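URGENT: need a sanity check before tomorrow's submission.

F., can you look over the Fatty acyl-CoA reductase record below? I want to be sure the sequence and structure line up before it goes out.
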Amino acid sequence: KREIMEEPSEIQSFYKGKTIFITGGSGFMGKVLIEKLLYTCSDLDKIYMLIRSKKGRNPDLRIDEMFKLPLFIRVRKQKPEVIKKVIPIVGDISLNNLGITDEQREHLINETHIVFNLAAAVRLEAKLKDAIESNTVGTKRVLELSKTMKKLEAFLHLSTAFCHVDQIELGERVYDSPDDPQDVIRFVQWMEDDAINLVTSKLIAPHPNTYTYSKRLTEKLVADEFPHIPVVITRPSIVLPALSEPLPGWVDNLNGPTGIVIGAGKGVIRSMHCNPNCHAEVIPVDWAINALIAIAYKIGTDRNKPKNCPVYNITQSSIERMTWGQVLERGRSIAYDYPFEGQIWYPDGNIRNSKFIHNVFVLFFHLIPAYLIDFLMLIFCQKRFMVRIQKKISDGLDLLQYFTTREWIFHNTNLLILWGDMSRKDKELFQLDTANVDVLDYIKFIILGARQYCMKEDLSSLPRARVHQRMQVSSIQKKIFFHFLSPILSFNVHHSHHNGIPILLRHIIFYIQAI
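Structure tokens as predicted:
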């Protein structure tokens, strides 16, 4: 390791003295990219980070807060001097000319060598106009700026492996778009919102949501700039918490699988519509970021310029494949060993291939208990919350089930060739090989990461959480609890002169006890 740090690798040498422009740097993947570049490619010149004010916090304050995150702990401790290399560019992809000043624009035009275009609206349920404005028009604005950059060596666009849902086998090439991106942009800019919402489902078909549809259109925009701009399209699969860098399990959002892990761990999610035989197309965020850095190096140094726009599927399907059923089977015992605080029920949910059976379980184990709990909250003049939470969970599960009940084959030949061509030092610094990953350890990292970094539950609380979980599973303790709770509730309600409610409450309690 000392030798690796003393003698720069080929990728490190490429980034030495480079100026990098990053959009989406404050997002999940963007922050991990910045951390990795600062720590491993410390000899870069500077990183221009497009960032806007948010919730009353100006860009400088947001960057200061970002560097205080646990994510940057090794940078703060070992290389604090590189933090000043991150320079905020106050702007927004939703604004004309990105909303940047003429002076900032000149800096970008004259200095930028590499562009990482990561900015995107990742909400699957976003309205079509919002998705097109953020993902497609935003990228168009970044492309227009990049055309004027005098030193540009690589423009890396972050897409998704699921932007061509009609392709059962997704190759590493550009696919035709069903609609012209420019036509769709004009449509959403000129039409009224109600009219857009009315035709959205037909327009985006066969896509299940506006996110994948807008990403597909954006790929066409990017590919059309080749070879005038050294563009490359990258398509990661579902991005999971970090495997090893900079912290095992690092995650800062509840999107996708992380939200499911937390919901199931809290005992709130008891059923999920999922085909256990379908393969889980996932990739750790640090592996995905390593791929982005290596791909930009490849584009910037490749003397044999490609004839067509290069595409890299950042997936692990050709390397290590696991089904959703295998993931659940291997992860269940780990989840029991590392419980979340404040479990509402014992976390023994399951996945179900049948949509009908899943809906039955949702009714009896999601919705009815939620209404019963809120009813009890109402009686005791407490704030109701369970129905609202369950509706959000149901909406999220409905959006995800499209991807957990279908099978795709993602070819990643270009990624494997890139890995094979990397030097020994670069392979140690920018790990891409998932073949030797200990799946059980990684699942543990995911659970603990969600627990620590999303729910802010310190590891010191694990013993207390384990005790609480044992109480959840003990039927004797449940019966004792409800035995004492029932007369208390009945007494309180009886003295409030609602004579018919005590019997109803006892039925409710017995129902919850059965659950």
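My own read: Residues 72 and 433 are 24 Å apart (CA to CA). The first helix runs from residue 2 to 6. If you see anything odd, call me.
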